[in-house]
Amino acid sequence: MPATVPGPRIAIVGGGIGGLAAGAFLRRSGLTATVYEQAPALTEVGAGLVMAPNAVRLLRRLGAMDEFLRRAVPLDWGWEFRRWADGGVLSVEKLSGVCERLYGERTYGVHRADLLDSLRAAVPGEWIRLGARCTAVEARKDVVLLRFADGSQVEADIVIGADGVHSVVRNSVTEPSPPKYSGICAFRTLVPARAAPDFALRRAQTLWLGPGRHFVHYPVGGGQAVNVVAFAPAGDHTDESWSTTATIEEFHAEFADWDPRVTDLITAGGVPGRWALLDRAPLRRWSRGRITLLGDAAHPMFPFFAQGAAQSIEDAAVLARCLAAYANDPERALKRYEAARIERTTRLQEISHGRRDINHLPDGPEQQARDAALAGSDPLVRNGWIYGYDAEEAPTVGVHTIVPGRVRVKRDA
Questions:
Q1: What phi and psi values does residue 18 have, to the nearest 5 degrees?
Q2: Pairing of β 89-94 and β 108-111
Q3: Pairing status of strand 10-13 against strand 34-37
Q4: C-alpha distances in angstroms, 248 versus 10, 205, 226?
Q5: So which residues are the catalytic ones?
Q6: Rounded to the nearest 5 degrees, what angle is found at the Cα of 101, between the Cα atoms of 97 and 105?
Q7: pLDDT digits 0-9 by tens, 98-137
């Protein structure tokens, strides 16, 4: 790590994946920051996620891979699409060996808490302030004032809002944009490996597609658990919260007529979480003056391309790069950061949104055409604009750079 030098006072609101990644990359750039997290301890609710090469290469540069690999599971197979009724394989993609050849890194399944631990190890403990719930952000001349629930106030030269989909910081950057009801909810559960059916323990990311629903599972926690996330009609459920739960019976009812392997996996899990997916249009701007947004605060996206956490990490890398280059001109730095990121993340928001309808087609001609297209597809190459992108090599304007020396994929592939 380079030695830190006197520089702008940077406040990061939110100590989740995006906030800690921002702290880690700022430290790597020689800048200092304070992370304000409302929770009394750094914990990550939820369950698992897939970490693709575009994020993994950034973790490696942070020196976070040793900690990450303690619990992450390298996936040998991905996009293993199966038919809902009988588990027939529609398509499957080999990842091991191919990811490294194309993009220089593997793809992993990891629990969110384990990823958070990897990032936390790259941020000095004295930079983190717990139990600090930010309630308001006020831009003043050449300074930003943060107010907290305990009545305290802090002045900063730069404020980074990494406070998620219900961001407080966002209200000081752009007009409030109330979310729309998507009609979809997500069930999440972790199944202990000892209780999981053998087929779910394979190092594979498996997606079962059916009418109005799809069901995903892959190993996490060093292979000691299977992450399950499933999407179904939300009905009257509109609560967008990681802490909301359903019953196993409710989860079962949504997939009752599916292949028994799916229902066996549901049975083996504990009480599932359930939250509504609310739809948010892409923001036209993320930054105002000395205040900017990062991760879900800027570009919340449906999880159908498994890029939410990865895009937060990419944001952090680019933001640190811009602030290091223009430390004496924060407003210019934040404009360059926004210009570098907004096109790419908007595109990912849009394609993630579109995937919902494709995954949930009812049985019939459209479903049959989709299945035929899956059988002839090569998503690892087709999505090279996602996985081959290098946030630290891309220019700070124009965003679709592919890692030199590796596969080059046209932007519209």
A1: -65, -45
A2: unpaired
A3: parallel
A4: 44, 22, 16
A5: 218
A6: 80
A7: 999 999 999 999 999 999 999 999 999 999 999 999 999 9
